[in-house]
């Protein structure tokens, strides 16, 4: 799920854009009037989408972009004259007056891109820590020494035991290592 934030300097603008998004099937995480409110809500997140104006009470959109994690994307709604000066990575621009279908298309496009990035990130296998790699290596050496097998066979043995018992590879390596120590 993509976290969508709405940020405009006036509460009425924020409310109307939030309502527009909700009516079109988007779930809005927060509707704010200052950049610092967005930063507070976004600090524990890796990514999200912010629909905002050009200026807020405490900062401008380019400043906010600098404070947010790289995974965040912004759709900036501003007068055409203001948009000419902006060209920052991670930001898309739509001219005012706003055309709702154009905004919905842009929000859908960017939220789909963020969803795809989240799925790719989840599918990527987690890198093992140095400590975990050392545990596996130590267990393989014990198996190779005591059972007179190759490193490949030792690794396959740990994998097979792990899969058969439904225990993670690292946990199984620890169990095997501990059984040889006693």
Automatic annotation (TrEMBL):
Q: Which SMART domains match?
A: ANTAR
Q: Which residues form a coiled coil?
A: 103-153
**Under the GO molecular function aspect, what terms does this record hold?**
RNA binding
Does the entry feature the keyword Coiled coil, yes or no?
A: yes
Q: Keyword annotations for this protein?
A: Coiled coil
Is Nucleotide-binding among the key words of this record? Answer: no
Descriptive protein name:
ANTAR domain protein
Organism, scientific name: Anaerostipes caccae
